[in-house]
Amino acid sequence: MKNRMFDVVIVGGGISGCALAYVLSKYTDVKSIAVLEKYGSLAPLNSNARANSQTLHCGDIETNYKLEKAKSVKQQANMLVHYAEMVDKNDFLYKFPKMILAVGDDECERLKKRHEEFAEDFPYMELWDAERIAQVEPAVALIDGKPRPEKILACGCTDEYSAVNFGNLSKSFINSARKTNTELNVSLSSKVEKISQFDDHYELQTSQGTFMARFVVVSAGAHSLLLANQLGHGLDMSILPMAGSFYYVPKMLNGKVYTMQNDKLPFAALHGDPDLIEMDKTRLGPTALVLPKLERYTGGTYWDFWKSLKLDGKVVRVFWELLKDSTIRNYIFRNFAFEIPWIRQKLFAKDAQKIIPGLKPEDLEYATGIGGLRPQVINKTDMVLQLGEASIVPEGENLIFNMTPSPGATTCLGNAYRDAQIICERLGIDIDNELLSEELLDGQACR
């Protein structure tokens, strides 16, 4: 492939890169696409089923979402549902019961108010009392067959898609893209070492040779920022890598049980999930742990972390603002303790008992090798931890750099559509908005 010119080169063969390859192939007049993945398979890191919670985020059980964000995420989650309905083989999307669990008077009152606010846009979500919870999830409502002592309430449903194997979905996107008339080249074991900019194209140096592109999209997780920095972009950003670990218990839950978010904490609340690759187990987590590397279970990337952190007074101030809050500080220290072998089961059991009150420390098994790493962005201009997705789209250049922590996997088609519109506009290529809207968006505009 040396010196081969493509219309678009996508760096990163995870869910975001594969979704973009599909959208460009199916809905635009882009003639040639290359996907470059530095490892030997598609979706090897955070999109792998072992590296995430396998949740289809719809905004219905995520209490850290405000209504407007929940509505947007719901629409983009439905794009995956519509895609699943169009393909011959759906080995990636699953239905399980799901609920938000409130424990105690204060949480129950908050959940009631949220249910009232969200009812019009999420009519399938029902308010469940303790008796109904016991029917759906006995382990949540009962201890040794008797009702748990605290007041509980849930908002849930039993017949909606809730779980995704994003690794299988990534492969499905590529298989679907290959069925179009667009030329698609997927190059594995092709780590991009450098991107060089010329007057009318870019050159990407890899171990498999040099790829040339009219437009480059980098969807390489935490490494996206490093490649952006090479070209002088995103210098006002730093990466804070947040790792998530999980624990296994024997299968105790029938579906997904999310808990109420503490508004003072910038990280997701604990939840319990079925595991699509270990169906005889329930997975609990994630924990939240800052790690000085950019990839969880691969060798190295420590130096890449320091380059992406760009430690200075502004970054230190962000850390200080986080740590001076006792709630956040105690949360960080407690999550660090969840990684210490001699004490972690006992400590984690206390938190997990909010979901499964009859849980005992000896029921827990640390899920070795399970969990990923999310690139949370530090905005050095505003000196804040920027939660959610971040993109760098330099004005007047044919470049996009994406960093997509949760819910970026769920919103992959929505993000791909956004990027495809930018690509087509800057390259002067047609995009079939009407067909995409009809097939993936119920005829609506993407929120």
**Looking at the chains present, what oligomeric state does this protein adopt?**
single chain
% residues in beta strands: 15-25%
**Count of DSSP H/I helices:** 13
Largest sheet: 8 strands, mixed
Helix content: 25-40%
Distance between the termini: 38 Å
Quick one: CATH class of one domain? Alpha Beta
CATH topology heading of one domain? FAD/NAD(P)-binding domain
Radius of gyration: 22 Å
Instruction: Provide the CATH superfamily of one domain.
Output: FAD/NAD(P)-binding domain
Q: What's the CATH architecture of one domain?
A: 3-Layer(bba) Sandwich
**Average pLDDT value?**
94
Class derived from helix and strand content: alpha+beta
Low-pLDDT residue spans: none
